[in-house]
Amino acid sequence: MSRANPSWGSPRIQSELRKLGIDVAKSTVEKYRVRPRKPPSPTWRAFLANHTKELVSLDFFTVSTVRFHVLFVLILLAHDRRRVVHFNITKYPTARWTAQQVVEAFPWETAPRFLLRDRDGVYGADFHERVKSMGIEEVIIAARSPWQTPYIERMIGSIRRECLANVVVLSERHLRRILKDYFSHYHRWRCHQSLAMDCPEPRLVQPPEVGEVVEVREASGLYRHYERAAA
User: Fold this and answer.
1) Nearest-angstrom CA–CA distance, 26 and 18
2) How far is CA 3 from CA 6, 9, 14, 178, in A?
3) Where are the beta strands (DSSP E) in 97-176?
4) pLDDT per residue as tens digits for the range 83-114
5) CA–CA distance from 18 to each of 5, 32, 182 (Å)?
6) What is the C-alpha to C-alpha distance for residues 192 and 83, in angstroms, rounded to an integer?
7) pLDDT band for position 33 (50/70/90)?
8) Are the beta carbons of 169 and 63 closer than 8 angstroms?
9) How much is the pLDDT for 19?
10) Which domains does the chain have, with CATH numbers?
11) How far is CA 84 from CA 28, 142, 203, in A?
């Protein structure tokens, strides 16, 4: 009943059940009533859309090596062209180390206006003070709300599906090389619907008269792209 009538509240459902000879308490209806998921906040969507060129997202994800060592990968993603502006790997993430990555990502007054991040405890006082001194305003998402950082969550998902799901990571050095190869392919050749089917680094359209279509393999065949080559 609640699925078929998502606008009905608990009193309405309770009344309808009573008319059918089913006498249940309101609290019981509250417990079992299906609640539709609320759509993302339009205010938050507007913020992301209005400040695309000034926004950079930051997040960690973990990777296990063949020896079951856990590595933490930090990436910083610029929203405007979906570019990974910086990444690094560590076994022991700290607030000071994380702050230093932001400094390395944005030298010589190139810092963005906003830095979008979650509430991870690694972003401590050292991180907050360093970012503030660079003139960056931290935008902290609500607890357990990954949908508020959609671009970087999607980016991490792409890394896992297209890259890490196809390799066995041997060490930190190996992972660094794997990610460098992936980001090189991602920036130059991977098209995005949100970029009008273009790449983070704009890719020219090659008309048929340029030549035949050839397949180019990258990273020992892990990735492929297609371009036209003159005869």
Assistant:
1) 11
2) 6, 11, 14, 46
3) 114-117, 137-140
4) 999 999 999 999 999 999 999 999 988 999 99
5) 17, 16, 60
6) 11
7) confident
8) yes
9) 80
10) 1-36 (no CATH), 43-195 (3.30.420.10)
11) 49, 23, 17
